[in-house]
Design a protein that fits this description.
Oligomer: single chain
Number of strands: 8
Strand content: 35-45%
Number of helices: 2
Shape: globular
Length: 125
């Protein structure tokens, strides 16, 4: 199998526990979390920007938000490569198909929000 799918199926450190001050051994250099705010009107994040032309890499994005009550929700993602999404440490869905088309809200995932702080983690391969 190719390198990308092996890494996407592997459980890397951010999937086990989020430490935003951690520094990890990357493919060609040490990597760390950086603050980022999307300027896109839909909140779109281009995972290619931090990596430049580097291929076969994995990127993570995490955010937290607060809910005033426990309630059902739907998390939606659009991605052309392999990915995984966690909500509050629980894997919601994973896809290991690569080089497909992408569109907004391409993959809807039912989710259950908790009262208070909720954390979403996305892995893009």
């Amino acid at each position: 199998s190719d390198w990308s799918s092996d890494v996407c199926s592997s459980d890397l450190p951010p999937e086990k526990e989020l430490h935003f001050d951690a520094i990890y051994e990357g493919k060609s250099k040490k990597v760390e979390w950086v603050d980022f705010t999307s300027k896109d009107e839909y909140g779109k994040i281009d995972f290619n920007k931090p990596f430049g032309m580097e291929k076969s890499v994995v990127g993570y994005a995490a955010t937290d938000f607060f809910s005033t009550e426990d309630r059902p929700a739907e998390i939606r993602i659009g991605c052309k490569d392999g990915w995984k999404v966690w909500l509050n440490g629980e894997l919601l869905f994973a896809r290991d198909e690569y080089h497909t088309s992408t569109e907004i809200d391409q993959y809807p995932m039912p989710a259950q929000l908790m009262t208070g702080r909720n954390v979403i983690l996305v892995k893009d391969c």
